[in-house]
Fold this sequence. Notes:
- The structure is a homotrimer.
- By secondary structure, the first copy, chain A, is mostly beta strands.
- In chain A, 4% of the residues lie in helices and 52% in strands.
- Chain A has helices spanning 105-108, 121-128, 409-412; strands at residues 7-26, 42-56, 60-67, 78-87, 92-100, 133-143, 146-156, 184-198, 201-213, 240-241, 253-254, 270-285, 288-302, 308-319, 327-328, 333-334, 352-366, 369-386, 389-402, 418-429.
- The two termini of chain A are 18 Å apart.
Amino acid sequence: ASKDGNFTFAINGRMQVGSQYNFINDVLPATGANLPNELNSGVTLRRARLGVEGTFYKIWDYKFEYDFSRGNGSVESGITDAFLRMNVTKPFSVKVGSFKEPFSLEEAASNRFLTFIERHMSVNSFVDNPNTYKTGIGANYAVPRFQFGVAFQTEPVGAWSAASTTVNAAGNNSRNNGSGDQGWEGIGRITGRPWMEDETKFLHVGISAGHTHVNTQYLANGTINVGPNQTGGGGGMAFFAFPGTNVDRTNVLNTGNLSIGNKGAPGSRRIDSYDRFGAESWLVHGPFSAQAEYLRTNINGQGYDGEHFTGYYGFLSYFLTGESKAYHVRNGAANRIKPKQNFQWNGSGWGAWEIAGGYDYINLNSGVVRGGKMDMVRFGLNWYPHTHVKIQNNITYVLNVDTSGSPIPRTAGFNNADLSSFLTQVQVDF
Amino acid sequence: ASKDGNFTFAINGRMQVGSQYNFINDVLPATGANLPNELNSGVTLRRARLGVEGTFYKIWDYKFEYDFSRGNGSVESGITDAFLRMNVTKPFSVKVGSFKEPFSLEEAASNRFLTFIERHMSVNSFVDNPNTYKTGIGANYAVPRFQFGVAFQTEPVGAWSAASTTVNAAGNNSRNNGSGDQGWEGIGRITGRPWMEDETKFLHVGISAGHTHVNTQYLANGTINVGPNQTGGGGGMAFFAFPGTNVDRTNVLNTGNLSIGNKGAPGSRRIDSYDRFGAESWLVHGPFSAQAEYLRTNINGQGYDGEHFTGYYGFLSYFLTGESKAYHVRNGAANRIKPKQNFQWNGSGWGAWEIAGGYDYINLNSGVVRGGKMDMVRFGLNWYPHTHVKIQNNITYVLNVDTSGSPIPRTAGFNNADLSSFLTQVQVDF
Amino acid sequence: ASKDGNFTFAINGRMQVGSQYNFINDVLPATGANLPNELNSGVTLRRARLGVEGTFYKIWDYKFEYDFSRGNGSVESGITDAFLRMNVTKPFSVKVGSFKEPFSLEEAASNRFLTFIERHMSVNSFVDNPNTYKTGIGANYAVPRFQFGVAFQTEPVGAWSAASTTVNAAGNNSRNNGSGDQGWEGIGRITGRPWMEDETKFLHVGISAGHTHVNTQYLANGTINVGPNQTGGGGGMAFFAFPGTNVDRTNVLNTGNLSIGNKGAPGSRRIDSYDRFGAESWLVHGPFSAQAEYLRTNINGQGYDGEHFTGYYGFLSYFLTGESKAYHVRNGAANRIKPKQNFQWNGSGWGAWEIAGGYDYINLNSGVVRGGKMDMVRFGLNWYPHTHVKIQNNITYVLNVDTSGSPIPRTAGFNNADLSSFLTQVQVDF
């Protein structure tokens, strides 16, 4: 950083080490040349990110971040943030490049500041799983009691190779060599704190909406590269969900590609666009916090008639050591917890301790689409020895899973499954 | 950096966000099980690079740079610079590792300092596309009015996996497990400024030459893994060209692999080496600049008899705000533009503004090779709000494209195509 | 770094540029649709790593390191260290994340501080090749004359995609979507310096042991995805070895997957676990050093009855310029060499010069397993111009290689081969 403040530069990063042990794991037996359906236990580097950020002449700033563990499990390798931002005024800024869609309270929060280890099912399914980091142009306005963000974004930064593409199965292939124009979206979120005594007592509310155009590319003879369970180069879009696990993020629910069948063939369908909506609320009152969201995705296209997916969740959390949830003004979402006393070996401090519990529901069955539906509960115990280390423990318990009628063998194998897992995550960020 | 200057260290990086909209896009219709031939519109992270560099005991320096966006479009993932350099005297240095070939004025310039968004067709086809960052040993001598570089280099640093190899289709696969000895080359460039009043008024001229040995590996039974349009593990070499676009860099021209057919079979060919030559000139006179290059590649091998590819380009540029093109002495090429006045919201400065226009020609048809030929014009408007941000706009217009006789369906689909695109690029570097 | 020392941060890295020329290369001729068996000459970026490390509140530290050149040759792309460590007392620490297994003297040494360019065959085959960086929890205790490390670790951090997996062929595929629970291991190493006059005169001895559980996953119908020479998603484990080369690290010896054949079929086998043992000794006496290790791996599982692989090596080294080998207390292994006088162009110093020679043996034939056996000698000349640059030259000469009876064509092609190579490596680290 220069002395006049015209040039600043910083490096940041995060590591999350996760483990999963499945103590209830009753699924349908696999048949034929299929692998068993049971969820698997194990350990993973959930995220390992490094980034740089800096400022030129106080008003231009930039950020680049890379996640080195993407692609190891079931999310993609790759770039997250990569943008140039111009701060027109103190609250108002415009950015160009790759950045997160402005959508949903839980998605807007950094994964470093989540209450549970994984995001809730509908947030993952509708926003995070299809790679929420998309390339385009966005504008933000943020003051302590009000925030909005709008963006025009295109398909997410794709994987390095088709071989490592396992998320957004049908949507993020490389877009050249005749694969069609990129999909694009207009999206926005507006939030505020209508009641606010101080930073430890407030009510946050907000709404999000987005319209996404999807590209489906047929071959010259009218056929398409994608089947119900395939990830070919023909575009389209799929939605899937997993039950809050962190190491084995198998898609228990799966719509399959929503563009299916040769052009004009009987029973063929083609997704042309989808519309997403979200409503969010969050109450903080001292050490107590309550958060809930409702999300809905409508499908538009040939062979569809009002199909829509829905999900919602709610949870309560409480700091045994008296801290409060913290607020990130620019994001309108959760922020870093600062323990009242750091942990010390001599017992003069124990860090912060937090308990949490909640309910989560998602339904990917609608009209002609049989993606399945599921609901579950989860419980958490979080330890924050100091501001930059966090150790989380979760128990997940699936209440009901209904995948009857799914044409995908792996998804069908989870019909009426009994699933419960013990998860841990150790996190350091800097 | 230590106080005695024996240890220095720095981090640098660049991000380029590009967009492409094809407003003229008339190509031949695709047939059968092929994707449409049209170019596609979209947005991409054209480059996202981070690097480190430093010095030990003043005479040893090192550099490592990685491009995180390679492989996303149609260039490879990977390492660019990765070398250790010993500065024997102030002008003379020797380096070992991965570094750019010393060849061509436009290739020698950093992509941060190009006048147009993309390099010209022959520079891309003969130098940049086959991954100009090769591993070997090189020597450089540079004083303000004279510069030369020579190198002995081997095949470029390959992709992480065969699946992400889309450039230098036949040449940069991993070289082990029986795929044959690596190819190698001797290459050099010599430039000078015979007329020079000051750093804003000078004439630069130079020549480049290189001999590259290519490895082609047959199977024990005399067959080969590569076909005219394939990227198997059998080595060989291909050249291709795209019409100045940045998001969809589809190979409109394509020679196919120049090693084709079983050993000794009728009609089989095998490239054994190729020779490249370049001549360059660049005149800077205050805000006015004129640059031109001529490149030629000769093919040697069985089944070839004097086949050669040629290309040339020329363009003019002018700074409306009075700046001059800047000169990088060590590279003998373009350098960073410093606006006379930085952009300010209050209107006290508008940064630097530059206009440019030029012509570009390439011919990959010669003797038995039907790679096609193409010429085009392009126009540019560049804004430099300050030294480290650059915003570029280009219009590309293809005059003629002739791919008649190409055995590759996608390339043949561009015969007599009408193509014109509007491109933008936002760049920040640090 | 903050002034109170509560926050520190550093960046480190290394680059190694290697070359290999095979001057004796007599192997069996390949037949049919196979590539030739000869080893290949070439140049490679052997390693290119960047890392960050730092400390919070003096007792918490973290490290993250990435090797950008993995996957280019025959080792994997990826993460090496990625852990959070808590320093409970000065000698005692606990860490969570991805870190090196505590096993073997030569493996414990950083590859920056090896005497020869490559590790010895049994260390590579049993420890380094299957990716020694595994994810789990470990504890270390180290004082100058005594050190131990124990760990509970799981399968290594896998490649980005199946396409780039070339090491631990059968063991490190992504562990989800029904591929079974991760394998795990308990492992430890204990070393000491029973005789020690000072840091230039000492005897180091130590032992290592580990038990590794291997996962093999059958399809529902009892078939398995893996064949003798395949890297399918069915798990299992293979061991292989290469003769000390650095660019073409072709697996001259190869056991093939030790889980083979359908469940219960005649001749089918399944590895359930393996046990590794190591004994090490190292004498340093001024400029003279002598090092030797013995390693053994026992195979357990269905169809196995006491099969075991063994290897050992020994070498001598001598500093012509009078330096001594250096000792890393925490690792109980080799450390950075500091020349008595740095190299200077004016001849006032020549850096450090070291010569070395040794013998290396490995046997992967045992019972039903025909992996082959090999022994070789190697000679080295190392130049250290200063502490952070090292230039190595090796000659490798294979004495005997016996791959008779191998079912793998490439491995069988090396039976009774005559192989000798000249290798170089230029290294800079910072």
